[in-house]
Give the backbone structure.
Amino acid sequence: MRLKSHFRSPISRLLIFLLVFVSPAIAETLDGIWDGTVTVNDVAIPFQMEFSSKGSNVQSYFFNGDDRVNPSSEGTFHDGFLVLKFASYGTRLSAKLKDGTLIGLYEGGRGSSYPFEAKRHQPSVVPANARTTPSIEGNWEIQVKSAKGESAWHFVVRQSATHVSAAILRVDGDTGTLAGDYKDGEFVLSHFTGERPFLVVVTPLNDGSLGLEISNYRETQTLLAFRPEVARAKGLLPPDDPTQHTRMRNPSEPLHFSFPDLNGRIVSDRDPHFRGKVLLINITGSWCPNCHDEAPFLETLYRKYHHQGLEIVGLDFEPEEQLQDWSRLRAFIQRYGIDYTYLIAGEPSQLNEKIPQAENLNAWPTTFLVGRNGLVQAIHTGFSSRASGQFDSALRNQIESDVARLLSENVRTASSPIGGAKTDADR
């Protein structure tokens, strides 16, 4: 009788009600890894996200290969509704949890909105065809006629049984890690980390080449890839050398700039602060994924060599709406802890107008290295991520080597442009 009367108390009845009738969406958390898709130009692009929560506050990450990247700057999950903001990209994810599926919209990336869905991650099972999966591991060259004048792109592939991690490396940088598996005669690879959505379907062909169908936010292309030695035997041109793609019109003239910083103060290459210093001038933008890849490297370089005489100047080009509201740009600077000089140069369409001394300047990022004599000594176009393997490490090592060499030079004995002929100023 006592037990029966206990369950009839008001508090007990409330507890029973909460346990039985409370909405599962309110009690459920999103913690863990989720398999998602964004739909871009009618193409569903798979990717993964990870959530962790504390109360109704949610933190999320995307994955670039095995690396957790692009953390959300704000996030809430309440009454089944998820809202995430990514300040350094100026994007937002809104979704509702229904029957175990998050359904919503990812907005703001390059002015686009992508339908979004996600379910809890299910561990993959090694397929029965693992032993008969063709090997495509290694380096390839994708034949292309790009808007930047390229004849080929690098295609870097790592493979473990049926699973592949790859990257397409263009003159302005790579796609990030394209990951996926072999099924029904093709490898289906994808990438999405809050920006640069890619889906690449790779079909090994009978002649040893690869057929690639590449879909991104702009278009879908069908291209061929060959091993480098096969491409040379066919007389095909290699990918552009990132140290030769962009050049100075007159190497004997300094690269001039004069733009405001975020406080409106005009900063010029003629300022006494830069005299006799080694200067790294970086063309960048908060909208540019490869610039996000490069920013931590530049900040590390600055901290390591600033006391030896290195100055870094970021020349930022932003779309018109971002020039009216610098919230994304400020979040970009804060996210990477940028301490070096950062200037607002204009809109992307104004690049050649604002930097007229360079020819074939058409890639973000592009880095100019200026010696103590005030002349451009080297130009590095683009920046890669770890997904590009040896090409990424080679680029990082080359830039750091060039910086160290220039810092070791005396102003009066500054050498000719790295890798180039001596100018009249050098003789």
Summary: The domain at 23-120 is CATH 2.40.128.120 (Lipocalin).
